Amino acid sequence: MEMAVLPEVTQSTEEVTLEDIHVGDPAVNTAEEIDRLRRWIWRHRHLLIGKGNALPPAAREIVCDIDVGDAKPIAQWVRKVAPQFQEKLSDLIKGLLGARIINMSTSPWASPIVVIINKNGIDIRLCIDYRLVNSLTRLMIYPMPLINDLLEDLAKVLWSCSLDMASGFWVVTMTDRARAISAFITPFGLFEWN
């Protein structure tokens, strides 16, 4: 197993500040209500992550499995990454390794990565092309809630909250089988999710 030398990453995420917490609507909520909610969220700031290429904590009590039956492993070639993204990709991979979100892999499976620029034009998003793996994956029968049912339930509440889970796909625990099948290849080596 070989890996290119990755530089050290000194900080995996920016700190969250009280000013980053935007809640309430001054047209609807009093200044006291907004302040109380902001302070309540601040007391739970350990659950929040900063901006940019932040690294989220692992999810608990959720396990992902990928069932491809007896399909033979698919190992695709690494795709070229534009030179201007090499350092950012290296930093991101090093951060994911340091946060123990990924590990080096010896899996016979390998899906290529695709680097995308975030909306801010500075940070990158690591995407993985799992189309071939998806074509082999057996679908799970799981009843998804209907949007109309959800909206009816929401109409009965006084307060609602919407949260955006940062990099949610990075934090879901996987079975050993799923880790091997979801391995991904980069210019820095083959990796799998923890």
Write the layout of secondary structure elements.
Elements: H1 31-43, E1 63-64, H2 83-98, E2 102-104, E3 111-117, E4 124-128, H3 131-136, H4 147-154, E5 173-174, H5 176-181, E6 184-186, E7 189-193
Parallel strand pairs: 1-5, 3-6
Antiparallel strand pairs: 2-7, 3-4, 6-7
Organism: Phytophthora fragariae
Protein name: Reverse transcriptase domain-containing protein
What's a concise summary of this model?
A hairpin with a 6-residue loop joins β3 and β4. The longest helix is centred in the middle third of the chain and has 16 residues.
Descriptors:
194 residues; alpha/beta; HIV Type 1 Reverse Transcriptase, Chain A, domain 1; 2 domains; five-stranded mixed beta sheet; two-stranded parallel sheet; 5 helices; 7 strands; disordered N terminus; DNA/RNA_pol_sf; Rev_trsase/Diguanyl_cyclase
Shape: globular
Mean pLDDT: 81
Radius of gyration over alpha carbons?
A: 20 Å
Class computed from helices, strands and strand pairing = alpha/beta
Q: What is the CATH topology classification name of the largest domain?
A: HIV Type 1 Reverse Transcriptase, Chain A, domain 1
Q: Please, what is the CATH homologous superfamily of the largest domain? A: HIV Type 1 Reverse Transcriptase, subunit A, domain 1
Strand content: 5-15%
Question: What would you say this structure looks like, in words?
Answer:
The chain is α/β, with parallel strands linked by helices. It has 2 domains: 12-51, no CATH class; 62-193, HIV Type 1 Reverse Transcriptase, Chain A, domain 1, CATH 3.10.10. Helices cover 25% and strands 14% of the residues. The chain has helices at 31-43, 83-98, 131-136, 147-154, 176-181, and strands at residues 63-64, 102-104, 111-117, 124-128, 173-174, 184-186, 189-193. The strands form 2 sheets. Strands 2-7-6-3-4 form a 5-stranded mixed beta sheet, covered by helices on one side. It has a two-stranded parallel sheet with strand order 1-5. The longest helix is centred in the middle third of the chain and has 16 residues, at 83-98. The radius of gyration is 20 Å and the shape is globular.
